[in-house]
Amino acid sequence: MKYLIAFLASATVASSAFAANPVVKLPSGVVVETLKAGTGAQPKADDVVRVNYRGTLANGTEFDASAKHGGPASFPLNRVIPCWTQGVQTMKVGGKAKLTCPAATAYGDRAVGPIPPNSELTFEIELLGVGQ
């Protein structure tokens, strides 16, 4: 009986490991966790992207969200923090991802609004469109 329990426990652990979201660590240290794979176009750094997003500090405090500004945001991908430029290029339209941004790829030693200097940031991003 104890062997059956051990087998079932190990099978449960193994199956949950396969259910995990794909995670990629970029050379800069940016971590991209795919929450939902997209099937549309994949942006390049010089593209304009349209996204829904939510940004939080390492302690979970939300500092910004597209919903606070009335809905999706559009901007040139090469005009934002390096974490976004690098991470969003790994996504496809229709996808959702969580970006973990080391301070060096976010705002570095600068304080920006409610973001303290040298802050690691997390963004949940939904890529809605490219070139809009």
Explain the overall architecture.
There is one protein chain. The protein is an alpha+beta fold and 132 residues long. The chain has a single domain (23-131), classed as Chitinase A, domain 3 (Roll), CATH 3.10.50.40. Helices cover 18% and strands 33% of the residues. The chain has 2 helices and 7 strands. The protein has helices at residues 2-18, 82-88; strands at 23-25, 31-36, 48-57, 62-65, 73-76, 96-101, 121-130. Strands 1, 2, 3, 4, 5, 6 and 7 form a 7-stranded antiparallel β-sheet that branches. β1 (23-25) and β2 (31-36) form a beta hairpin. It is globular. The protein starts with a helix and ends with a strand.
Strand content: 25-35%
Q: What is the CA-CA span between the terminal residues?
A: 61 Å
Low-confidence stretches: 1-17
Shape: globular
| Top CATH class | Alpha Beta
CATH-defined topology: Chitinase A, domain 3
Strand/helix succession = HEEEEEHEE
Tally of distinct domains: 1
Residue-averaged pLDDT: 89
